[in-house]
Design a protein that fits this description.
338 residues; alpha/beta; 2-enoyl-CoA Hydratase, Chain A, domain 1; lyase; Enoyl-CoA_hydra/iso; ClpP/crotonase-like_dom_sf
Length: 338
Amino acid sequence: MTTVPIVAPADLPELPAGPGTVLTEPLVGIDLRGAVTAVGPVDHDRILVGIGPVHPGWEPLAADLDLTLVPTAAGPDTVTVENPHATLDILGRAALDAPRAATVLASLLRWSGTLAVPAALDAESFAYSTLLGGPEFAAWLDRRGPRPLPPEVAEPVRVTRDGPVLHLELNRPERRNAYGRQLRDALVDALDVALLDPSVRRVELTGAGPAFCAGGDLDEFGTTPDLATAHLVRTRAGAARPLHALRERVAVRLHGACVGAGIELPAFAGHLTAAPDTVIRLPEIAMGLIPGAGGTVSVPRRIGRHRTLYLALTGHPLDAATARAWGLVDAVTTDVAR
């Protein structure tokens, strides 16, 4: 039995809404296994998760919900899991632990896919900045405790040129190529070269060491002077915009841990290859945040908003084979440079 409430689709219009309910019971299961009945438009404050197998006729509703769990493969709007009810409990606990972050993410994913990429990046950043000022992120900072800033390094991104090909290698293996200020600025500077020089026909991005990129540098979290500046830095000084602008010329090769920004940014690339040992995670909800390096824009455009929400709410690792099956990466190959 699940501890998350499960209702029939016909009961959707009767579900209580409002901020109090969102904070105390942010996620509800919707049973899609029974016969089809008339249901009005789906518009709700809470996260709505379908439980399958989906009875024929419920497919349009499953597409409208935030996520649907099924025991056997049933299309890109669903996630196949061994036990839908047990997984619903995992999602419910994650949403209850960080209801503001979880519901903000679900709401954002419902509509940001209709926006042009630059506008969608702004929308993500506005939501992220809001959560930076929230109690869930503050509680995570308290648990983390004070940290010293990472030391300066001479070459956080190694840049080489081979004719029309610009090779970029994330070069902080001692920090698993964490996406901190130094690495971000060096990466953006290198991408600007390709934007300004049309003779650069291809950009190849790799990572040094055992991991492509283990996500944002946690030692730098919470260090921006104010939320407005944080938004401007994220959107105007981040790598998401130039990667999107260069996408047809960019090839990224993943390996090892690809966490947070370590998959959010590569997902903008026109061609994304993964080594068999690649492990992908979106862990931000547990920190009281949402993906903030462009992941609510890049990842759904590859795998859809439903599977993106699943990855973010559970924080579960995604292996290379499943990432390929979902379309998050374009190929899995052992020919990935380290």
